[in-house]
Specification:
Length: 282
Protein backbone atom coordinates (compact mmCIF):
# COMPACT_ATOMS: atom_id res chain seq x y z
CA UNK A 1 0.00 0.00 0.00
CA UNK A 2 1.41 3.40 -1.00
CA UNK A 3 2.28 6.12 1.48
CA UNK A 4 1.94 9.86 0.90
CA UNK A 5 5.75 10.09 1.07
CA UNK A 6 6.23 7.53 -1.70
CA UNK A 7 3.80 9.43 -3.92
CA UNK A 8 5.62 12.73 -3.57
CA UNK A 9 7.17 13.70 -6.90
CA UNK A 10 9.00 16.86 -7.97
CA UNK A 11 8.63 20.01 -5.88
CA UNK A 12 5.60 21.93 -7.24
CA UNK A 13 6.24 25.34 -8.78
CA UNK A 14 2.60 26.41 -8.47
CA UNK A 15 1.83 29.78 -6.86
CA UNK A 16 1.15 29.53 -3.10
CA UNK A 17 -2.60 29.08 -2.63
CA UNK A 18 -3.25 27.63 -6.11
CA UNK A 19 -6.19 25.19 -6.01
CA UNK A 20 -4.16 22.63 -7.95
CA UNK A 21 -2.30 21.74 -4.71
CA UNK A 22 -5.48 20.31 -3.13
CA UNK A 23 -6.30 18.30 -6.23
CA UNK A 24 -2.80 16.84 -6.34
CA UNK A 25 -3.04 15.94 -2.63
CA UNK A 26 -6.53 14.54 -3.26
CA UNK A 27 -5.18 12.17 -5.93
CA UNK A 28 -2.37 11.07 -3.60
CA UNK A 29 -4.80 10.55 -0.70
CA UNK A 30 -7.12 8.47 -2.86
CA UNK A 31 -4.30 6.17 -3.96
CA UNK A 32 -3.29 5.72 -0.31
CA UNK A 33 -6.76 5.36 1.18
CA UNK A 34 -7.97 2.95 -1.52
CA UNK A 35 -4.93 0.77 -0.78
CA UNK A 36 -3.14 0.88 -4.14
CA UNK A 37 0.59 0.80 -4.84
CA UNK A 38 2.13 3.70 -6.84
CA UNK A 39 3.05 1.38 -9.74
CA UNK A 40 -0.58 0.34 -10.16
CA UNK A 41 -1.43 3.86 -11.38
CA UNK A 42 -0.60 5.94 -14.43
CA UNK A 43 -1.29 9.67 -14.50
CA UNK A 44 -1.46 11.33 -17.91
CA UNK A 45 -1.58 15.12 -18.09
CA UNK A 46 -1.91 17.80 -20.76
CA UNK A 47 -0.25 21.23 -20.87
CA UNK A 48 -0.79 24.09 -18.42
CA UNK A 49 -0.06 24.64 -14.74
CA UNK A 50 -2.47 21.72 -14.28
CA UNK A 51 -0.36 19.60 -16.65
CA UNK A 52 2.44 19.42 -14.11
CA UNK A 53 0.46 17.05 -11.91
CA UNK A 54 1.95 14.00 -13.64
CA UNK A 55 5.39 15.13 -12.45
CA UNK A 56 4.29 15.96 -8.92
CA UNK A 57 2.61 12.63 -8.13
CA UNK A 58 5.06 9.77 -8.35
CA UNK A 59 3.23 6.99 -10.16
CA UNK A 60 3.76 5.94 -13.76
CA UNK A 61 3.28 9.19 -15.63
CA UNK A 62 3.08 10.81 -19.06
CA UNK A 63 3.13 14.58 -19.60
CA UNK A 64 1.44 14.73 -22.99
CA UNK A 65 0.66 17.67 -25.28
CA UNK A 66 -2.03 20.34 -25.05
CA UNK A 67 -5.54 18.84 -24.97
CA UNK A 68 -4.33 15.30 -25.52
CA UNK A 69 -4.37 13.75 -22.06
CA UNK A 70 -7.52 11.76 -22.87
CA UNK A 71 -6.37 10.00 -26.06
CA UNK A 72 -3.02 9.18 -24.47
CA UNK A 73 -4.70 7.92 -21.27
CA UNK A 74 -7.09 5.76 -23.28
CA UNK A 75 -4.12 4.30 -25.17
CA UNK A 76 -2.36 3.55 -21.89
CA UNK A 77 -5.44 1.76 -20.56
CA UNK A 78 -5.84 -0.27 -23.76
CA UNK A 79 -2.14 -1.19 -23.64
CA UNK A 80 -2.27 -2.26 -20.02
CA UNK A 81 -5.81 -2.73 -18.69
CA UNK A 82 -4.50 -3.65 -15.25
CA UNK A 83 -3.32 -0.10 -14.64
CA UNK A 84 -5.62 2.38 -12.94
CA UNK A 85 -5.41 5.37 -15.27
CA UNK A 86 -6.04 9.02 -14.41
CA UNK A 87 -6.12 11.68 -17.11
CA UNK A 88 -5.83 15.22 -15.87
CA UNK A 89 -5.65 18.72 -17.30
CA UNK A 90 -6.97 22.25 -17.09
CA UNK A 91 -10.22 23.74 -18.37
CA UNK A 92 -8.35 25.38 -21.24
CA UNK A 93 -6.62 22.11 -22.06
CA UNK A 94 -9.71 19.93 -21.84
CA UNK A 95 -12.57 22.16 -22.98
CA UNK A 96 -10.71 24.10 -25.67
CA UNK A 97 -8.31 22.14 -27.81
CA UNK A 98 -9.27 18.87 -26.08
CA UNK A 99 -13.06 19.19 -26.28
CA UNK A 100 -13.49 16.69 -29.13
CA UNK A 101 -11.64 14.00 -27.20
CA UNK A 102 -13.80 14.71 -24.16
CA UNK A 103 -17.04 14.02 -26.07
CA UNK A 104 -15.71 10.77 -27.52
CA UNK A 105 -14.29 9.55 -24.21
CA UNK A 106 -17.69 10.22 -22.62
CA UNK A 107 -19.55 8.07 -25.14
CA UNK A 108 -16.85 5.38 -25.29
CA UNK A 109 -16.97 4.67 -21.55
CA UNK A 110 -13.43 3.38 -21.26
CA UNK A 111 -12.45 2.62 -17.67
CA UNK A 112 -10.35 5.69 -16.80
CA UNK A 113 -10.81 8.71 -14.51
CA UNK A 114 -10.65 12.22 -15.95
CA UNK A 115 -9.99 15.06 -13.50
CA UNK A 116 -10.20 18.63 -14.76
CA UNK A 117 -8.55 21.38 -12.70
CA UNK A 118 -10.96 24.16 -13.58
CA UNK A 119 -9.88 27.74 -12.85
CA UNK A 120 -11.87 29.47 -15.61
CA UNK A 121 -8.69 30.90 -17.12
CA UNK A 122 -5.40 30.00 -18.78
CA UNK A 123 -2.99 30.03 -15.83
CA UNK A 124 0.30 28.96 -17.40
CA UNK A 125 0.10 31.46 -20.25
CA UNK A 126 -0.70 34.27 -17.81
CA UNK A 127 -4.41 34.81 -17.73
CA UNK A 128 -6.13 34.69 -21.12
CA UNK A 129 -9.80 33.72 -21.40
CA UNK A 130 -10.57 30.01 -21.33
CA UNK A 131 -13.68 28.32 -22.76
CA UNK A 132 -14.98 28.29 -19.16
CA UNK A 133 -14.61 32.06 -18.59
CA UNK A 134 -17.93 33.80 -17.96
CA UNK A 135 -19.52 36.14 -20.49
CA UNK A 136 -18.20 39.64 -19.78
CA UNK A 137 -15.19 38.33 -17.82
CA UNK A 138 -12.39 40.91 -17.94
CA UNK A 139 -8.73 39.92 -18.07
CA UNK A 140 -5.69 41.95 -19.03
CA UNK A 141 -5.99 40.33 -22.47
CA UNK A 142 -9.73 41.01 -22.85
CA UNK A 143 -10.21 44.47 -21.43
CA UNK A 144 -13.70 44.87 -22.93
CA UNK A 145 -14.89 41.64 -21.35
CA UNK A 146 -15.47 38.19 -22.81
CA UNK A 147 -17.71 38.41 -25.89
CA UNK A 148 -18.41 34.68 -25.89
CA UNK A 149 -20.45 32.47 -23.57
CA UNK A 150 -18.83 29.63 -21.60
CA UNK A 151 -19.10 25.95 -22.44
CA UNK A 152 -21.04 23.67 -20.09
CA UNK A 153 -18.79 20.60 -19.78
CA UNK A 154 -20.83 18.85 -17.08
CA UNK A 155 -23.95 18.78 -19.26
CA UNK A 156 -21.79 17.84 -22.25
CA UNK A 157 -20.48 14.77 -20.43
CA UNK A 158 -23.94 13.74 -19.29
CA UNK A 159 -25.70 14.10 -22.63
CA UNK A 160 -22.87 12.28 -24.38
CA UNK A 161 -23.12 9.19 -22.20
CA UNK A 162 -20.54 9.51 -19.39
CA UNK A 163 -21.37 7.04 -16.63
CA UNK A 164 -19.92 8.97 -13.66
CA UNK A 165 -20.12 12.76 -13.61
CA UNK A 166 -19.19 14.83 -10.58
CA UNK A 167 -18.01 18.26 -9.58
CA UNK A 168 -15.88 19.24 -6.61
CA UNK A 169 -14.15 22.28 -5.16
CA UNK A 170 -10.48 22.46 -4.16
CA UNK A 171 -11.56 24.38 -1.05
CA UNK A 172 -13.75 21.51 0.18
CA UNK A 173 -11.14 18.82 0.59
CA UNK A 174 -13.32 16.23 2.30
CA UNK A 175 -16.02 16.30 -0.35
CA UNK A 176 -13.43 16.31 -3.14
CA UNK A 177 -11.64 13.28 -1.67
CA UNK A 178 -14.91 11.35 -1.35
CA UNK A 179 -15.71 12.13 -4.97
CA UNK A 180 -12.23 11.15 -6.19
CA UNK A 181 -12.39 7.84 -4.32
CA UNK A 182 -15.71 7.01 -5.94
CA UNK A 183 -14.53 8.16 -9.37
CA UNK A 184 -11.40 6.02 -9.26
CA UNK A 185 -13.37 2.93 -8.24
CA UNK A 186 -16.12 3.50 -10.84
CA UNK A 187 -15.96 0.99 -13.69
CA UNK A 188 -16.17 3.06 -16.87
CA UNK A 189 -15.40 6.66 -17.76
CA UNK A 190 -15.53 8.76 -14.60
CA UNK A 191 -15.28 12.50 -14.97
CA UNK A 192 -14.71 15.02 -12.19
CA UNK A 193 -14.54 18.77 -12.76
CA UNK A 194 -12.89 20.46 -9.77
CA UNK A 195 -13.14 24.23 -9.24
CA UNK A 196 -9.53 25.17 -8.58
CA UNK A 197 -8.95 28.90 -7.96
CA UNK A 198 -6.09 30.54 -9.86
CA UNK A 199 -5.07 33.01 -7.17
CA UNK A 200 -2.79 34.95 -9.51
CA UNK A 201 -4.85 35.64 -12.63
CA UNK A 202 -8.51 35.12 -11.69
CA UNK A 203 -9.77 37.57 -9.09
CA UNK A 204 -13.45 36.67 -9.65
CA UNK A 205 -13.67 32.88 -9.16
CA UNK A 206 -11.93 32.94 -5.78
CA UNK A 207 -12.26 30.59 -2.78
CA UNK A 208 -14.75 33.06 -1.27
CA UNK A 209 -16.76 33.17 -4.50
CA UNK A 210 -17.19 29.40 -4.45
CA UNK A 211 -17.87 29.26 -0.72
CA UNK A 212 -20.73 31.72 -1.25
CA UNK A 213 -22.16 30.38 -4.50
CA UNK A 214 -21.87 26.58 -4.52
CA UNK A 215 -24.80 24.25 -3.89
CA UNK A 216 -24.26 20.58 -3.05
CA UNK A 217 -26.19 17.63 -4.38
CA UNK A 218 -26.37 14.90 -1.72
CA UNK A 219 -27.02 11.98 -4.08
CA UNK A 220 -26.87 11.48 -7.84
CA UNK A 221 -29.89 12.55 -9.88
CA UNK A 222 -32.05 9.70 -11.19
CA UNK A 223 -31.94 10.51 -14.90
CA UNK A 224 -29.65 12.37 -17.28
CA UNK A 225 -32.45 14.88 -17.93
CA UNK A 226 -32.82 15.64 -14.22
CA UNK A 227 -29.06 16.00 -13.81
CA UNK A 228 -28.83 18.49 -16.69
CA UNK A 229 -31.84 20.43 -15.33
CA UNK A 230 -30.16 20.67 -11.90
CA UNK A 231 -26.93 21.93 -13.42
CA UNK A 232 -28.77 24.55 -15.46
CA UNK A 233 -30.84 25.63 -12.45
CA UNK A 234 -27.65 26.42 -10.52
CA UNK A 235 -25.69 27.77 -13.51
CA UNK A 236 -23.19 24.89 -13.09
CA UNK A 237 -22.30 25.94 -9.54
CA UNK A 238 -23.27 22.59 -8.11
CA UNK A 239 -21.00 20.04 -6.46
CA UNK A 240 -21.31 16.35 -5.63
CA UNK A 241 -21.84 13.24 -7.74
CA UNK A 242 -24.43 14.42 -10.25
CA UNK A 243 -24.96 11.29 -12.29
CA UNK A 244 -23.85 7.67 -11.99
CA UNK A 245 -24.80 4.62 -14.00
CA UNK A 246 -23.45 1.08 -14.36
CA UNK A 247 -22.89 0.17 -17.98
CA UNK A 248 -20.40 -2.18 -19.65
CA UNK A 249 -17.12 -0.40 -20.14
CA UNK A 250 -15.34 -0.24 -23.51
CA UNK A 251 -13.12 -3.26 -23.00
CA UNK A 252 -15.94 -5.46 -21.78
CA UNK A 253 -17.91 -4.46 -24.86
CA UNK A 254 -14.98 -5.33 -27.11
CA UNK A 255 -14.66 -8.66 -25.32
CA UNK A 256 -10.98 -8.13 -24.53
CA UNK A 257 -9.59 -10.81 -22.25
CA UNK A 258 -7.86 -8.96 -19.46
CA UNK A 259 -5.49 -11.82 -18.65
CA UNK A 260 -4.11 -11.84 -22.19
CA UNK A 261 -2.99 -8.23 -21.83
CA UNK A 262 0.41 -7.02 -20.62
CA UNK A 263 0.62 -7.16 -16.88
CA UNK A 264 2.17 -4.96 -14.23
CA UNK A 265 5.35 -6.64 -13.13
CA UNK A 266 6.68 -5.62 -9.80
CA UNK A 267 7.10 -2.44 -7.84
CA UNK A 268 8.55 0.81 -9.03
CA UNK A 269 12.35 0.93 -8.83
CA UNK A 270 12.97 4.38 -7.37
CA UNK A 271 16.70 4.31 -8.06
CA UNK A 272 16.14 3.47 -11.70
CA UNK A 273 13.46 6.17 -11.91
CA UNK A 274 15.92 8.75 -10.61
CA UNK A 275 18.55 7.66 -13.14
CA UNK A 276 16.03 8.16 -15.97
CA UNK A 277 14.93 11.45 -14.50
CA UNK A 278 18.51 12.77 -14.51
CA UNK A 279 19.04 11.50 -18.05
CA UNK A 280 15.89 12.95 -19.59
CA UNK A 281 15.28 16.17 -17.64
CA UNK A 282 16.81 19.28 -19.14
C1 LIG B 1 -1.04 23.40 -29.28
C2 LIG B 1 -0.78 24.40 -28.20
N1 LIG B 1 -1.48 25.55 -28.19
C3 LIG B 1 -1.28 26.45 -27.22
C4 LIG B 1 -0.35 26.23 -26.24
C5 LIG B 1 -0.12 27.29 -25.20
N2 LIG B 1 -0.69 26.95 -23.92
C6 LIG B 1 0.07 26.36 -22.95
S1 LIG B 1 -0.79 26.10 -21.55
C7 LIG B 1 -2.18 26.81 -22.23
C8 LIG B 1 -3.45 26.97 -21.45
C9 LIG B 1 -3.42 26.40 -20.09
O1 LIG B 1 -4.64 26.64 -19.44
P1 LIG B 1 -5.41 25.52 -18.69
O2 LIG B 1 -5.52 24.30 -19.48
O3 LIG B 1 -6.71 26.11 -18.24
O4 LIG B 1 -4.47 25.17 -17.46
P2 LIG B 1 -3.94 26.05 -16.24
O5 LIG B 1 -2.60 26.59 -16.67
O6 LIG B 1 -4.94 27.13 -16.00
O7 LIG B 1 -3.83 25.09 -15.12
C10 LIG B 1 -1.97 27.22 -23.53
C11 LIG B 1 -2.97 27.88 -24.39
C12 LIG B 1 0.37 25.02 -26.28
N3 LIG B 1 1.27 24.71 -25.34
N4 LIG B 1 0.13 24.13 -27.26
S1 LIG C 1 -0.80 30.85 -12.40
FE1 LIG C 1 -2.74 30.28 -11.45
S2 LIG C 1 -3.06 28.14 -12.09
FE2 LIG C 1 -0.91 28.62 -12.40
S3 LIG C 1 0.13 27.99 -10.52
FE3 LIG C 1 -0.35 30.16 -10.32
S4 LIG C 1 -2.32 30.18 -9.25
FE4 LIG C 1 -2.05 28.13 -10.08
Amino acid sequence: MATMKELKGDQPTWCPGCGHFSIMAGIQKSIVSLGYEPHEFAIVSGIGCSGKVSEYVRTNGFHSIHGRSLPVAQGVKMGNPKLKVIASGGDGDGYGIGQGHFVHASRRNIDITYIVMDNNIYGLTKGQLSPKSAHGFVTKHSKQGNKEFPVDPISTAIVNGATFVAQGFAGDIKQMNDILNRAIEHKGFSYVNVFSPCVTFNKINTYDFYKTNLTTVEKPLETREEAVAKIRQHESLVTGVLYEENRDDFQTKLGIEFDLQPNISGKMDHQLYQTFEKQFTC
